[in-house]
Specification:
This protein has a single domain (about 5-220), classed as NAD(P)-binding Rossmann-like Domain (Rossmann fold). Helix content is about 45%, strand content about 15%. The chain contains 6 helices and 7 strands; from the N terminus they run E-H-E-H-E-H-E-H-E-H-E-H-E. The model has no long low-confidence stretch (mean pLDDT about 95). The structure holds NADP nicotinamide-adenine-dinucleotide phosphate (NAP).
């Protein structure tokens, strides 16, 4: 039976590339992000194996509705990629903007938790896989980076979730890229990791046999 992958932050960058790669590999893909038009265009490009589910993943009712629609449409979930995330425009602590921190923490931490909380009952049924986008910034210390600190949370959470999920045969992987050429940055970064490179790594993690669990993939630019 065709497997289903639900992706948050699927409209651009890493999420959109992963949607294309997963569909290419024969998965159904449920695409979550706020930008309705971009999401529908992507789903249209991919075809019948894609379902656009516009929503704000920081709003639990919207997230729950999208997950329910994905499950109703495809019959269940085999994998979830909690990938939606953002940075801040004011760097550092002293010069930082607490309002921006609040919104970023809501997305990078609380929405990842909500995505796991809402999808685990479905993944349990399929002994499924939860993948989450961490960062190099969640493994190293970067001067004053609150963004990096949210990814340190993701790094710790992914390991703890892996231990919880293994009790019922589930698996969890954190992907920790260095700089990736996506709309995360205002300027193109053609020499850095391409979103398709990350998508390939996600598909690698998802395609391992029962004997091997990929817990973390750290990927850096080749320059
Ligand atoms: N680019 C890098 O160098 C890099 C490195 C390490 C880790 N990461 C991480 O990789 C992940 C993906 O980022 P990216 O580089 O691919 O950048 P991106 O192209 O900006 O992707 C971010 C995605 O998150 C979605 N999103 C933002 N807020 C949302 C919300 N409230 N509800 C639902 N979706 C939301 C965006 O879509 P909408 O705006 O349509 O909602 C978009 O699809 C993030 O977690 C980021 O922290 C990026």
């Amino acid at each position: 039976m065709t497997k289903t992958l639900l992706i948050t932050g699927a409209s651009t960058g890493i999420g959109a590339a992963t949607a294309r790669a997963a569909a290419q590999a024969g998965w159904n893909v449920a695409l979550l992000a706020r930008s309705k038009d971009t999401l529908e265009e992507l789903a249209g490009d991919i075809g019948d194996s894609a379902l656009a589910l516009p929503c704000d993943v920081t709003q639990r009712d919207e997230l729950d509705r999208a997950i329910a629609q994905a499950v109703a449409h495809f019959g269940g979930l085999d994998a979830v990629y909690a990938n939606a995330g953002k940075g801040v425009s004011s760097a550092g602590i002293e010069q930082g903007d607490p309002e921006e921190w609040h919104a970023m923490i809501h997305l990078n931490i609380l929405a990842v938790l909500a995505t796991a909380h809402a999808t685990l009952p479905h993944l349990r049924k399929t002994k499924g896989h939860f993948v989450v986008t961490g960062s190099k910034a969640g493994r190293d210390h970067l001067k004053g980076s609150v963004y990096g600190a949210t990814k340190w949370f993701v790094q710790g959470f992914a390991g703890n979730l892996a231990e919880e999920m293994r009790e019922w045969g589930g698996r969890c992987t954190v992907i920790t890229p260095g700089m990736v050429d996506t709309p995360f940055f205002d300027e193109p970064k053609p020499d850095k990791i391409q979103p398709e490179d990350i998508a390939a790594v996600v598909m690698f993690a998802l395609s391992q046999p029962a004997t091997a669990v990929v817990r973390e993939v750290h990927i850096m630019p080749g320059d």
